[in-house]
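Ribosomal silencing factor RsfS
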Amino acid sequence: MQNEQLVQLAVATLEDMKAQDITVIDVRGKTSVTDFMVIASGTSSRHVKSMANEVLEKVKEQGVRPIGSEGLEGGEWALLDLGDVVVHAMQTATRQFYDLERLWQGAEQSRAQHGAEHE
């Protein structure tokens, strides 16, 4: 699966799960860790866990083997390492605290809205 397709799958899954403020950041050339970051907010620990688990399930259905995941137990935040795509699901306060968008400022960023995913 191509990186852009993986981003689209993650965004579509997060949209289906009613994630809020879905943002895609293109970090190619900014870090060797990954190419894209997908960041989304959840309304509660249960919502964050559900979003993360659903993304994991959907990518596995497409034959993608996640490298790892962190934070699924607590539900304040979850990180899914899908290789060239990293998904961050966070409660709003946690997202504001870590402010990943500002950290990666200067990297190309887009907001996914009703199917207008980053391409």
